[in-house]
Amino acid sequence: MTAxxxxxxxxxxxxxxxxxxxxxxxxxxxxxxxxxxDLSVREYSLLDVLSRQHQxxxxxxxxxxxxxxxxxxxxxxxxxxxxxEDRGLLTRYLCDTDRRGIYTDVTEAGLTLLTEARPTxxxxxxxxxxxxxxxxxLAPLVRAVEGLKVPx
Length: 152
Description:
Blueprint: H1 6-37, H2 41-51, H3 63-70, H4 74-86, E1 90-94, E2 102-106, H5 108-133, H6 139-147
Antiparallel strand pairs: 1-2
Helix pairs in contact: 1-5, 2-5, 3-4, 5-6
């Protein structure tokens, strides 16, 4: 295949459209969360991921798992956790069975903020998708996202 191969060109255009859709959605949600709750998209995502943990075996995520879930490097995730911990939204503690392991839990204040921010996140997502669906190059991607059936 060459750089001018129509299949590569179509693939590159599809990737550009997907990247554009992601960027627009993230920017729309970011503005809404910042304005309404002083939260970034990453902070909201981290609170959301950590709020789904449970007590007991297998109930807590290691920092690498958290980093993977919020699509950040481990060092960026650690900085994000520190910022939210400084705001009183998260706490960290050592694992009982492995002193090298550090767990992170959402505080009551974090859960309250997450509960307040969830409708903002959801309505901003819906609005961003509706806006993108109006554009012919993004409409098929919006339909694909809306049709996804992923486990909760």
